Amino acid sequence: MNPLIPSMVLAFATIGFAPALAHADSTAPTDDASHASAPQSVIADTTITESGPPAQQRGFQMDVRGGYVHPFGKFARDARYGTARSAFVEVAAGGRVHPRIYLGGFARIADVIQFGGEAIYYMRPAARVNPWVGAGVGAEATSISNSPFSGSATFVGPFGRITAGVDARINHYLGIGGFIGGGLGQFTSVTIRSNDTTTDHSIRRKSFHGDLSIGVRFILFP
Fold first, then answer.
1. What does the longest C-alpha to C-alpha distance in the chain come to?
2. What are the residues facing 135 on neighbouring strands?
3. Spatial CB neighbours of 78, under 8 Å, sequence gap ≥ 6
4. What does the DSSP 8-state code read for residue 146?
5. Of 199 and 106, which is predicted with more confidence?
């Protein structure tokens, strides 16, 4: 996708006009035609530059997110990491196919690694403060060492998420915002590594698990 050609911050010019001043010579009434001077206009050109939000965005967009995630559900309890929050870092890149619509992919690194695609709808793409909502689907994976296995086990499965946030569009190139989100997933297969042996299994008794996240994001071409 071609990158968006950078545009300049909007400037608006206003021109003020001074009213025409008509001047006439006043004399005592006579039979002669009165003498009047021709009207003269004084025009003052004044340019005023106003600071406004950057232009609506199309094309390439990228963001980096960071924050905390708290998993919940049966798997999180069994894995013994669902009782405390953990930090995460996420990178996303894609494009604005319309000033209100973004489509792209992302990868999140935390106790559970997630990657997939996401769509975002911007509510006020021309404003400096721009709320948005997003939805994404993808795959996730996590590894557990030792209990209940003598080696390690890697769980893999699908997940989905919804996210909402507010961006502050600093200029055409940079924005910053906060967000909250929630995800729901289900591990469907497990790879067990033990004593130099690797085996793949389908999980029979599947259960759902989820997470809640909160953080900040830095946006390139907001």
1. 126
2. 119, 162
3. none
4. S
5. 106
